[in-house]
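Lab notebook, bench 4. We co-purified these components, and the gel suggests they stay together. Before we commit to crystallization screens, I want a quick structural picture of the whole thing.
Request: model the full complex, all chains together.
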Amino acid sequence: MFKVDSYLTAKELLEWNISLHLQLETRSVHEHEVFLEAGQSCPYFYYVLKGLLRVYYYDLNGHEMTHWFSAEDTMITSPFSFFKNEPNILYFEALEDTELILITREQFNKIASKFKSTDERLRNLYADFAMVLSRRIMSVHTEPAEERYLKLMEEHPYLFQKAQLTHIASYLGITPQSLSRIRKNLMG
Amino acid sequence: MFKVDSYLTAKELLEWNISLHLQLETRSVHEHEVFLEAGQSCPYFYYVLKGLLRVYYYDLNGHEMTHWFSAEDTMITSPFSFFKNEPNILYFEALEDTELILITREQFNKIASKFKSTDERLRNLYADFAMVLSRRIMSVHTEPAEERYLKLMEEHPYLFQKAQLTHIASYLGITPQSLSRIRKNLMG
DNA sequence: TAGTGTTTTTATCCTAGGTTAATAGAGATC
DNA sequence: GATCTCTATTAACCTAGGATAAAAACACTA
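Here is the predicted assembly.
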């Protein structure tokens, strides 16, 4: 998920790790490693300390579709699995060497309690999720692929350094061939 | 937003209204009334006691796009405005005579505290939002309009009694003409 | 009943993007 | 250097759905 104001920061997490005795674990994932697969339960909320993740799934035709990217200092999980007991349908892949903080449901709840006593940041976090998701639905309903591509390039240029164009294409909901055609038109 | 398991129930709300001294207000909205417009701040989380709401916005070409429907016993708000201070871009319209419970941010927080002490339903509520939104993005990326139409009809048949086909079309991200063509093909 | 506005359908034409298949480049590995 | 693999591009053709315009079907009102 892309960066939003209400994300926890690594600094906060590490402070709370001490003050709340969370005993958070970290994990190193190397480039191209798929560290979570569909069918496996997703026991963690992940904080990306460093690196870049891609989250994808397979559609009914067996095509790999990129659902999200998750960059440095953002958080991500499989809501299907982490919060609910529904089977996870998402694959999590590192697009470069990545450092993760793993947050279990129990640790997440402790943090949530902490929030409760201080402010509404957790709620804002969820609201941000909803807004980002809403905007993406609006975007795919109202903007042609070329426009979505240009916006992505403008707002998240770092993606283009690590993610390949097939990933970008499926994130935009088009084929690599179409993306290629769009890029060619933009060159002209 | 469509019904999810974790929604509050009217019964709970009314109980808490008493036990937590919330002093919740209700509001009657008649068919076709637009009771929230873009630009206005949205001070409430709405619980639809009875009736059916449509939430829409205008895209860059000035076309009215249906973003959500909200049926009986579901909750809805403008996350842009209720949680954050971003300007609201959504219009809320009643598709039939509708009874709403209005929940202010303050009342919502009281309820949230109540949750905190008992269970994780609030968090589940947000998680459900995220799941529903995620699924809709996947759907629009991977399913042709005909399939999305059939699924909507199967999962939410009540919509077709009150919402007009132009609403359904823009919810599906297509024009009324295309929807009409799809319906004709399905008849054949 | 006619008259007016709204929703839905039909028809024609057009375009964005899909499908298939081939080509070209860029690392890797031998 | 030669070969293999993976990614990106190109081209030819096709199709879902958009744009425009008009007709038909309702629905409300007088």
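Helices of chain B lie at 10-19, 79-82, 105-118, 121-142, 145-155, 159-162, 165-172, 176-187. Worth comparing against the SEC data before the next meeting. Strands of chain B lie at 25-29, 34-36, 44-50, 53-58, 64-70, 75-76, 91-94, 98-104.
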